[in-house]
Amino acid sequence: MLTVEKIGGTSMSQFEDVLKNIIGEPDSQRFSFGRVFVVSAYAGVTNKLLEDKKTKAPGIYRHFVNGEDCEEALNVLLQDLLKVNERFVNIGLDYEAAKEFLGSRIQQTKSYLHSMHEIIASGYVDRENIFSAARELLASLGEAHSAFNSVNILQNRGIPARLVDLTGLRDSSQLTIDERIAKAFRGVDPFKEIVIVTGYTKGKEGIMRQFERGYSEITFSRIATHLHAEEAIIHKEFHLSSADPKIVGVEKAIPVGRTNYDVADQLADIGMEAIHPNASKPLEMAGINLRLKNTFEPDHPGTLISKDYIGPVAKIEIIAGSDKVVVVEIHDSLMVGEAGYDKQIMEMFMNYSVSYIMKATNANSISLVIWEHDLNEALMAELKGAYQTVTILPAAIVCVIGSNIAVPNILARATSSLAKNHINVNCVSQSLRQVNMQFVIDRDKYTSAIYHLNEDLCVG
């Protein structure tokens, strides 16, 4: 059996647990060949290189965009990464070899960024293209670091291991992502050695440009489909559970167990990614099942996501949502009976690259739920100039999701749970397919809604 497995950044930072719980020692039952591991950068490293994923605090990339010298920032990063390396010496990392590799990569990165600054200064090129190239270059550094360390540790522990470096740092070949993967895997036999692959792949289409911070899952998915893996596995520091354990408590966050790719898409749409949607589609189309596992509970089977799975009994699988949304409501008395009235609204949203999460309508109003960070003053001004009344309301969205929830009592149970806990529903949406019921509520009721819906629909 061939599996392609992705290890997340938090798990990578606890590589001793990865050795024990995922890879295994050669004489243990957990160990086997026929496994390709796609590794993320260590936790927090990509935040330092680009920007903090949650807070948006600037990283080295912002220094570059601002025209500042990145050399000192890269020197600081080097020292930070060497401190990371120190933690792995006791499990087999050759510190000096790792230091030499890291120093060489960072020196080459400095050289490329300096050249890019000079090209920008010439005024002959599109600055945005250079910025994009710098972002790609910086992103690749984190995965190169963790992948090299992983192979070095395995080899020093007597485990046959091979590094497949897809970052293409010194390779000027103009290859697509798929072409680079195909080239890199020629002559690689996963049944004779443990294969460790960088989560970043250099491609002429730009993996960061297309997929931003989901790029390592794109690499993982493309490799799984290229190798025709029997199963794709993602190892994270938590289970895919009925609700966020930070809200409902670990004991009430029930591992999902089984679901389908449609449910995974619903989660991605509200920012609770089990897997990046552009990574799940190739797996789904190739008929490759995806398993999500908790690194720290290795004997738990995790959650299996497959194409055609429908739960044998009607039940809620996941309660999820976000309190980082706003409702944009357009009210106009001329709307009633007008065919295609919302076409102009959609064109405005498209012009500002704003995608909505949910849409609810009546005779004279259209309510759209968007991410708060997509709230654009110019877009709002354009909408207010075109329509009678435009209302913007900070809000939260909670979703009741499952592969088999198309039964009459589930919607009633969900609304009853919210009502009895004094949570008003401002908007509601459910499509004919009935895999996701969406409720827009007051923002300060978000955690209460998640807790009580999980309690009443999943635990009870």
TrEMBL record:
EC code: 2.7.2.4
Matching Gene3D superfamilies: 3.30.70.260, Acetylglutamate kinase-like
Keyword Nucleotide-binding: yes
Molecular-function GO terms, alphabetical: aspartate kinase activity; ATP binding
Pfam assignment, any one: AA_kinase
Start and end residues of each Aspartokinase ACT domain: 398-455
One GO term describing the cellular component: cytosol
Swiss-Prot/TrEMBL keywords: ATP-binding, Kinase, Nucleotide-binding, Transferase
EC top class, as a word: transferase
Catalytic activity field: L-aspartate + ATP = 4-phospho-L-aspartate + ADP
Entry keyword Kinase: yes
Gene Ontology biological process terms from the UniProt entry: homoserine biosynthetic process; lysine biosynthetic process via diaminopimelate
Membrane-spanning segments: none
Annotated ranges, domain Aspartate/glutamate/uridylate kinase: 1-294
Family assignment from sequence similarity: Belongs to the aspartokinase family.
NCBIfam families associated with the record: PRK09181.1
Name of this protein: aspartate kinase
The species this protein was found in: bioreactor metagenome
